[in-house]
Amino acid sequence: MDIQNWVHILFRSLGAVVMLFVLTRILGKKQISQLTFFEYVTGIALGEIAGFLSTDVENSYLHGIVALSVWFFIPFLGELVTLRSKTLREWFEGKGTVLIKEGKVLEDNLKKERYTADELLEQLRTKSVFRVADVEFATLEASGELSVLLKKENQPLTPAMLGIKVAPEEEPQTVIMDGNILDEPLAAMGLNRGWLHTELEKQGFLLENVFLGQVDAAHQLYLDLYDDQVQVPEPQTKAVLMATLKKCGADLELFALSVENNEARRMYGNCANAMNAVIRDMTPLLER
């Protein structure tokens, strides 16, 4: 093979890679993460055509582009149509099959899906479920994923079940990565480099020694260092604030007990009650 053919294959391959990348991006993330059977076949076909398009120098490049376009437009139009029709969506993508109901395995549905008991138990174990009797409902989705709902008595305990209020969780922002400061997430938290350098100094670490740094909603900085032998102390901002509030409440109660003036005693008592109410409201935010 002469140099001209090598160059020809190089440019054909580059073109195929670019087209394949663009087409798969248009088809969406679902093409990668949750493949149905039809999408699986489409992905294989697009890859095969792109491969032939790269190396089959004897055939027309335009013919390959046409074939690639057909395998792109049919799934793409199919997705647009199935968005509007539940019937077509079930026909193209399939629908879920119930495999377990009220702790009982539905053997007929297992046979229908050609699913063995070993495969069912394996899927349950990936969901941290080791007893079929603990399952209220389990469905094999069209994507092949097993969705499991545990019986009420076997579900994990949550603060809502105990009537405990908790604060909403906000996404922590990564402000340091590979020893470099990321200004955009830092600004999104309303912070700047000066604040970050101050926090690093408080914890006694240099920026170049930090592999990863994240800031939570309470502006607490969590660090992961390159040297895993070094222990990084946990941020104490919330704990210090809670301790300060409790100390203020205790001081007010002490003042209420120690003063002789009735009006002052009443004022300190009211302030202590108000502080205790603040502590109760802040507890879900500061103790989690």
Automatic annotation (TrEMBL):
Regions that span the bilayer: 6-23, 35-55, 61-81
Q: Which residues form the YetF C-terminal domain?
A: 84-216
Keyword entries, A-Z: Cell membrane, Membrane, Transmembrane, Transmembrane helix
Q: Which residues form the signal peptide?
A: none
Does the entry feature the keyword Membrane, yes or no? Answer: yes
Instruction: State the coiled-coil residue ranges.
Output: none
The cellular location(s) given in this protein's UniProt record come to: Cell membrane
Q: Which organism is it from?
A: Paenibacillus methanolicus
Predominant subcellular localization, coarse grouping: membrane
The protein's name is Uncharacterized membrane protein YcaP (DUF421 family)
Listed GO CC annotations: plasma membrane
Name the family the entry cites.
Belongs to the UPF0702 family.
InterPro entries in the cross-refs: DUF1657, DUF421, UPF0702_alpha/beta_dom_sf
How would you describe this protein's topology in the membrane? Multi-pass membrane protein
